[in-house]
Amino acid sequence: MNPLLKAALRLFAAPRVNMREDYERVRRLQRQLAALPRPRYRAASWRTIPGDVTSRVPVRVFEPQERRRDELLLFFHGGGWVTGDIESYTPACATMAELTGADVVSVDYRLAPEHPFPAGLEDCFQIVHRLLEDPSLAGRDDADRIVLMGDSAGGNLAAAVSLLLRERGYRGARQQILLYPVTHWDHDPATAPFESVRHHGEDYRLTSTEVQDYMQMYVPDPLARQDPRVSPLMAEDLSAQPRTLMITAELDLLCDEGEAYAHALEAAGNEVRIHRVEGALHGFITLPRFSRSLRDAYEVINTFLDEGHLAGSRETPPGGTA
Question: Domain named Alpha/beta hydrolase fold-3: which ranges (predicted)?
Fold first, then answer.
């Protein structure tokens, strides 16, 4: 990256925002930015997944103008478990539906600090579990067509849900797409095990200070941050996990830990594909659809889904039977 662009990006570095004090203001700003210009999509509707009334979690459903595949992308948004919601991610989900040709279901899980760990995770788990057990709730007759997907903290939640499904003895998803996820608990440049935290933790869109603030709000107990449900890389057993696409961003402090998790999944016998988007910053999935980074990622995502569709009849879903 040339020095002029790098200097410009430093102006937007997150240490200038104290997330623990300003998260509500950031939430409002995100919603305002997402509403301008007004996103275009064929359909968006609120639903709740039937179940115990105390555990209903709202979702928003996005349909592409032209449906080109049967998969349903069950999406968990990013935002450090603290910011982000269905409204702020509506443009990204509408783009997701159009560029994949698949229905997208965006999950409105509870946010910290009002609802710390494991509240948001349990919301995501309940949605995934119910849809895998009864895909007709999502208009599907085959649970293998449900693909877990998330970016950043949402990628963390998708990975953690997959681990929980196996741990609790339930059927798992056959495929998951993890976009620059959080997979480890330590993002202090002085102690973190990953060089990308030191190389990219101060200059770009997401900083180590911001991630540490998010982690403190999501999991107030420092010891609990090493729980595999928070830090999937800490899991002792990564077997029987979904076929996984790991997409990382070259200039993201989370790049190394995302790829480390992918390699750990592969070492445990899972099918994994890793793709690093060159020159990309954290959060690029929310960029306009003409962005090179976004187009690069969706080419890989569509190939992954196409290959998974062809292989689907020969595979056994994690925790289930063919």
Answer: 73-285
Alpha carbon distance 19, 101 (integer Å): 36
> Is residue 195 included in any domain, yes or no?
yes
Q: Which entry of 77, 187, 275, 282 is annotated as an active-site residue?
A: 282
Q: What is the pLDDT of residues 202-216, one digit of tens each?
A: 876 799 999 999 999
Mode of pairing for the β-strands spanning 175-179 and 103-107: unpaired
Residue 55 has pLDDT above 80, yes or no: no
Active-site entry in 151, 213, 252, 256: 252
Decide if 282 is catalytic.
yes
- The domain of 71 spans 3-312
Establish if 320 belongs to a structural domain: no
Q: Is residue 317 part of a domain?
A: no
pLDDT at 320 over 60: no
Overall size of the chain counted in residues: 322
Query: Domain with 88 in it: what CATH number?
Result: 3.40.50.1820
Number of domains into which the chain is organized: 1
Residue type for 4, please? L
272 vs 321: CA distance, rounded Å:
20
